[in-house]
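name: query_chain
kind: protein
chains: 1
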Amino acid sequence: MSNGQPLIRLEQLGKRYGVHHALRGVSLSLHEGEIVALLGPNGAGKSTLLSLLAALSRPSSGTLLIKGQSLSSAWNAVRRHIGFVSHQSLLYPELSAAENLQFYARLYGLEDGDARARQVMAWVDLLPRYHDQVRGYSRGMVQRLTIARALLHDPQILLLDEPFSGLDEAAAERLQRLLQRIHDEAPARLTLISSHDLPRTLALVDRVLILKQGRLVVDAAASAHDPAGWRTRYLAEIGG
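structure:
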């Protein structure tokens, strides 16, 4: 774990929806080059935390700094550092992959959107389908295209919310290899993966966070346990 300036710093972060506390007093620092698992049962606050880190919502309490900047003072600047893969692809199925990516390239103000779009399509092994409508893509292909969209502007922080969800075994294995390659090719990028697929996620990460009822209950190196040990600890933490 790096001792340098964190890319993301949380201090007593809280998020409340009415009387429901989705996050309670979460404090942690995340650094460049880390690839981190965010684990927890449904309703633990994982998606809420990722939404806050993606600058899609604002915290109810506490401090959230991204590259030393707060959302309140630098909302748009902060969002440019982030690529987010959520449960929704944010792709237009009636458009081709090329049209989708070039649309987002214009939103990001990229000078040569077509060249960059082709580059990220090659990264995710979809370049031969560049001009095909997204509605003709398989679930696994849509997920890889969504990752291409998230990487289009070369973000320093990549957030993935349940990236393996809904994929068959072959597609999940291919995505796991892709995520490892993406990290290897941009080793300074911070990647945070929320997932229920413990074996695949643990094979990728060097740090593990576990949320329970909106609280951070585990923050440990992935090397602290083997996969079987992590499964035992995970079940103990969320069941206790």
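note: Strands lie at 8-17, 20-30, 35-39, 61-66, 69-70, 82-85, 157-161, 190-194, 207-212, 215-221.
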